[in-house]
Amino acid sequence: MECLKNGRRAHAVAGIAAGLLLLLSLPVAGWTETLSVAPIAPLPDIHLSFGAGSPAPSQVAVTVELVLLLTVLSLAPAILVMMTSFTRIVVVLSFLRQAMGTAQVPPNQVLIGLSLFLTFFIMAPVWKTMDRTAITPYLNKELPPDQAFDRAMKPVRGFMFRQVRQRDLALFVKIAHLPALPKNTDDIPTYVLIPAFVVSELSTAFEMGFLIYLPFLILDMVVSSVLMSMGMMMLPPTVVSLPFKILLFVLVDGWSLVVGSLVQSFH
Description:
Layout (H helix, E strand, L loop, with lengths): L1 H23 L3 H7 L22 H26 L3 H15 L7 H32 L5 H19 L2 H10 L14 H40 L7 H15 L2 H11 L3
């Protein structure tokens, strides 16, 4: 048996050795053909050159217009918030939600969307005037950019002058070290008018918020007094008064009253 096993092992070793000799005897060209990899595509040549010619005046004008347009688009949110009726509307609606105690109802997206559409409604006459006197003539090549900008700012400045308070305007005129409060509105720079207008809008919004708070505060006091007289001091009054606040707001058609008062406050 041991001789048989040794014979099998000798045959196996001999087979392996014969295979190795066969592999070593293969030509090198066969290996290269077998292991060759597909050639890599050459990279394209890139040539960068700069022309020495000067651009045409029309190309310069188009470039300047694009830069101005990108600047206006980047400042559009600030312009919409600070130079329109948006500030007063969104602050008053936020006061209304807090006075009712409904937490996040209506949600912020609804309040901001409603404020935006009310702003579009209120500012529509101003934007129509801008389009008629400045934007359309400029697009028709009837006005240069500086005159178009001045004409576009006139209706916006007129709107802000109608809403700004004289004491707020006088405050910023004093801070800006201007000689005195000019009688002509054209003598007041726009950088003085805008912060005065924003402060006036915040003051008006807080006054309207105070008037909105009063009926809900009275209802909270009544509910709190009733609960204390009944000995139910552990029950939060706001939980009990919330359904009555909502009922009162629905019965008096509160949304129409608030929105109508906001729109009419700009006329």
